[in-house]
Specification:
heterodimer; A: alpha/beta; 5-stranded parallel beta sheet; 7 strands; 43% helix; B: 7-stranded mixed beta sheet; 5-stranded mixed beta sheet; 14 strands
């Protein structure tokens, strides 16, 4: 999906994309969680959603901002949301989800089931935001069942981690907040799985936060708006792509265990490629949401000023149809 | 003045009381008794408390009232909210011992430490934590110790809370969150214990911004804010915490958000404000009607700043043809600018004078010059005189 969507964006078929290249082993985190654990992501965690059953079609609908998008086409691509999968809406401002995760975890603690926790993903760059400090300190002092997962992939856009911090990564800070902390090989799906499973035990049974720092490498560009060859050596990227690739590592394991073969690999690649392309074509064809959705959900109900402004847009669209072609929207307005 | 040093805060309150005693006693030869203590708008007798149509239904059910000042009314509202909603929690800096303004006193004893708790000293954390709790359906009543310190939480409130429902296509919302913050002048609060930041938030779709003028209003509006399905910022004029005293209905009641209230009917000029500014306007009207016999002013308390009650204001100005708006916050791009331009759009043919805005000057809030900074009775009177004589 990443490959097709990345290339489609480069062809201008939708506005923006971010790949997960090199960080796929964190699927192990998703596997160690319960499906009802609340996920607060940053933006490079679609594997968690896919693992929970959010479909590729739903991902692509979001990227195309069409009628299938649960977010009603309002946010940039890869800003996924799924209430059904307990995956809170991705938002662009970095680090804001960190104190929010402490809050949702505290709510879960008060509910007292003892079997749910919150999980919060962020990159090592976002950990420099004030909200990281706020969130971890609050989670610790207020004893919140939350797992913080830092994806330390070496770069925040162009900024290498050497310009991000001088201490011993992010993990060393967890100790300062009085938090159980572990650093893992982020390209090892079993390390991700085991650490998360143990962290989940501590969070849900002891009502304590845990910090996991997953050391990995951002193989892809930061986003489709970024050319990472401007600030890092291709050789470095190739090294990780070839020598320390989480997918290859898992494949070796599966092959050695007799769970996977070259034939299966070839067949799966052909099958998934077809599925991705079929889904892509179907999603690209869907209409955009009705123009009404521009005004709904700002509040629970439309206040008088928005009712008036909606009327104003209806008038404009009707008066200047040549400048406001809304034919690709499902229906312009509900009335 | 150090924040969070309770000894100093206590002293702040003592000064505040002295200040009000002093200002209430201040008499000029105009014969107007200035200050909240002499306000005719406060309901000092139980039967007066139910005199507004908004509370009429309740008076038929139960006419009991209790004498409360504004912080007690806020406390009463939170206590009722927590009794009627098991998911409701109250948190912030120093709330568990009762709060630096006593607004949360007794709540720990009633509801326990899990539901009433101190947070570390981090406003962005408090707001983010409230967003997180509300996002899973809980009711979060968070306190920012002074409105002046709400700015570290600006990102969480503007980028997160306000957009939560919209950005998720209504899959998630944070309607259960309310942020309370003491605001406005207190006599000697200087730069960072005096601000009125409502204008910053009035520019943010998705939020509601509410401010009460009295204990009855504070209780009803706060309960409505807590139960409203949108994130609400509730600014409490701290100079009224002890100074404003009313007979407050003991029952659980709400006052409507998004609705202004006409406090005094009039025909010649509409005078509009909110929060503690209402009392300066009350005095200005008394002075104007005394000095200009036959003049009839209409006084409106906006109550909700976002989304504000355009209909009531426009209807009033279409009747009177003149408008004076007053607020403590600086003039440029303040809430008054929004109201003035909307009134211009809607009342153009009825306006008989330019809309006057009486606001704080476009300066930081000053310490020793407070009297000269404030949109005081005399400045409001002067504006009324100008629109009438235009």
């Amino acid at each position: 999906m990443d490959q097709v969507m990345y290339e489609a964006q480069r062809q201008g078929r939708f506005s923006f994309y971010m790949t997960h290249y090199g960080e796929e082993a964190l699927l192990g985190v998703a596997a160690a969680l319960k499906p009802t654990d609340i996920v607060h992501g940053q933006y490079r965690e679609a594997y968690t959603l896919l693992y929970r059953g959010f479909t590729m079609e739903e991902c692509m609908d979001q990227c195309f901002a069409n009628v299938g998008d649960g977010g009603k086409g309002r946010q940039m691509p890869v800003h996924y949301t799924s209430e059904a999968h307990h995956f809170q809406s991705i938002s662009s401002p970095l680090g804001t989800q960190i104190p929010q995760a402490a809050g949702s975890a505290y709510a879960l603690k008060l509910e007292g089931s003892g079997d749910r926790c919150s999980v919060c993903f962020f990159g090592e760059g976002a950990a420099s935001e004030g909200d990281f400090h706020a969130g971890l300190n609050m989670a610790s002092t207020l004893k919140c069942p939350v797992i913080f997962i830092c994806r330390n992939n070496g770069y925040a856009i162009s900024t290498p981690s050497s310009e991000q911090y001088k201490g011993d990564g992010i993990a060393s800070r967890g100790v300062g907040y009085g938090m159980d902390t572990i650093r893992i090989d982020g390209n090892d799906i079993w390390a991700a799985y085991n650490a998360t499973k143990a962290a989940r035990q501590i969070a849900t049974q002891e009502n304590k936060p845990v910090l996991i720092e997953a050391m990995t490498y951002r193989v892809g560009h930061h986003s489709t708006s970024d050319d990472s060859s401007k600030y890092r050596d291709r050789k470095e990227v190739e090294h990780f792509q070839v020598m320390d690739n989480p997918i290859t590592r898992l494949r070796h394991y599966m092959t050695r265990q007799g769970y996977w073969s070259q034939e299966q690999d070839d067949a799966w690649r052909t099958m998934i490629k077809k599925e991705v392309m079929d889904t892509f074509r179907a999603c690209e064809k869907k209409k955009k949401p009705a123009l009404d959705e521009l005004f709904t959900d700002v509040y629970d109900e439309l206040p008088p000023n928005l009712i008036k402004q909606r009327q104003e847009l209806i008038r404009l669209v009707n008066e200047y149809p040549e400048y406001y072609n809304a034919d690709d929207h499902e229906k312009m307005f509900s009335q | 003045m150090l924040r969070n040093a309770s000894r100093r805060i206590t002293s702040l309150l003592q000064h505040q009381q002295r200040y009000y005693a002093a200002s209430a006693a201040a008499q000029t030869n105009d014969g107007i008794q200035q200050g909240v203590a002499y306000s005719k708008l406060l309901k000092r007798a139980p039967e007066e408390a139910f005199r507004t149509p908004e509370l009429a239904r309740m008076s038929a059910l139960n006419s009991e009232t209790k004498k409360m000042n504004l912080f007690q009314a806020v406390n009463d509202a939170m206590s009722i909210a927590m009794t009627t909603d098991d998911t409701a929690v109250v948190f912030g800096e120093d709330v568990s011992f009762g709060g630096v303004f006593r607004a949360t006193s007794g709540l720990v004893e009633k509801f326990g430490r899990d539901r009433v708790f101190n947070t570390p000293l981090t406003e962005q954390g408090i707001a983010g934590f409230a967003v997180g709790m509300a996002s899973v359906g809980h009711t979060a009543i968070a306190e920012i110790q002074f409105a002046d310190y709400i700015f570290p939480a600006f990102d969480q409130l503007v980028n997160e809370a306000a957009k939560f429902r919209y950005r998720s296509g209504n899959q998630f919302n944070v309607g259960g969150m309310t942020i309370r913050a003491p605001c406005s002048a207190v006599g000697h609060g200087g730069h960072y214990h005096s601000q009125s930041p409502e204008g910053f938030f009035a520019h943010c779709p998705g939020l509601k911004v509410v401010t009460p003028r009295s204990p009855i209003q504070a209780k009803g509006l706060l309960l409505a804010s807590i139960r409203d399905r949108n994130p609400v910022i509730f600014f409490e004029p701290k100079c009224l915490y002890r100074a404003a005293v009313e007979e407050v209905p003991v029952e659980d009641y709400e006052l409507p958000l998004g609705k202004a209230e006409i406090l005094k009917k009039g025909t010649d000029v509409t005078v509009l404000g909110y929060g503690s500014q209402i009392y300066a306007l009350e005095n200005a009207i008394q002075l104007a009607e005394k000095k200009m016999p036959g003049l009839s002013c209409e006084l409106i308390d906006l109550r909700t700043i976002l989304p504000w009650d355009v209909e009531t204001v426009v209807e009033s100005v279409n009747k009177t043809g003149r408008l004076v708006i007053a607020h403590e916050a600086p003039k440029t791009a303040g809430v008054g600018a929004e109201i003035a331009s909307t009134v211009m759009e809607n009342c153009f043919l009825r306006l008989e004078a330019p809309v006057e805005r009486v606001c704080g000057w476009d300066t930081p809030f000053p310490l020793v010059f407070e009297k000269f900074y404030m949109p005081s009775m005399i400045r409001c009177y002067d504006a009324i005189k100008n629109v009438v004589n235009y």
